[in-house]
Amino acid sequence: MGDSSFIRILKLLVVNLGVTGSRVFSAGYFAYAVYQLGSINFSILLVGIYGGLSDFFDGLLARWWRVETKTGALLDKGADKIFIAVIAVTLYCCSPLWRSGFSWWENIWGSQTGKQLVMLVGQELALSVFGILLAALRETRREANIFGKAKMWAECASLLPWTWWLLKDPSGTVFLKNINTINFLLFVANTLAFISFLCYLSDHLKKSK
């Protein structure tokens, strides 16, 4: 026997607002807490980890409760991109790469990591805009392509240790010792993001014929 309309709406609210929405909230809290404290502590790290795990749980709940929708898929993708962008920018600003007394332009373009982050956030924004356009054309994909999923893993693989290194040593010395690893993982994420965008574009062109 299927759920009543009220129960279905309740489940949709739990998945889309409760779980997916909490990912955006956790990113905002992460940035606010780091700004207020001036560094990262273990509680802030846990908030970031929860935000990443919520991406798994909202999809799991949506499938389990059979409330998968195109709108929910679009919200999920948007929450992913906001979460990654906010966490990445926050980490960069509390690392030694952000130097007081320098302009934001010099701080961003003065390092390879800054350039990689600008490229990554830009590509995430482009993917978001493209997703909205596809939604308007009723061609939204519910599932990310394999390159999009791999991109998310690469992003987490770069941001999680970055957060941990800043937690262990707020001065950023440990982070700077491992910066080549971070730059490599960001490069991988950027490459996968670009390929993912090309896949979405290719799918759209095929459907347009």
Q: Say how many strands there are.
A: 0
CATH topology: Four Helix Bundle (Hemerythrin (Met), subunit A)
**What is the end-to-end distance?**
41 Å
User: What order do the SSEs take from the amino end to the carboxyl end, as H and E?
Assistant: HHHHHHHH
Can you count the helices? 8
Query: Mean of residue pLDDT?
Result: 84
Q: Estimate the strand proportion.
A: under 5%
The best one-word shape is globular
Task: Catalogue the unreliable spans.
Answer: none
What fraction, in percent, of the residue positions are helical? Answer: over 70%
The second-level CATH architecture is Up-down Bundle
If you compute it from the alpha carbons, what radius of gyration comes out, rounded to the nearest whole angstrom? Answer: 18 Å
Write structural notes for this entry.
- With 209 residues, this protein is an all-alpha fold.
- Helices cover 81% and strands 0% of the residues.
- The protein has one domain (5-208): Four Helix Bundle (Hemerythrin (Met), subunit A), CATH 1.20.120.
- It starts with a helix and ends with a helix.
Task: Using brief descriptors, characterize the structure shown.
globular; 209 residues; single chain
Task: Describe how the helices and strands are arranged.
Elements: H1 5-37, H2 42-64, H3 70-93, H4 104-109, H5 112-136, H6 146-168, H7 173-177, H8 179-208
Helix pairs in contact: 1-2, 1-3, 2-3, 2-6, 3-5, 3-6, 5-8, 6-8
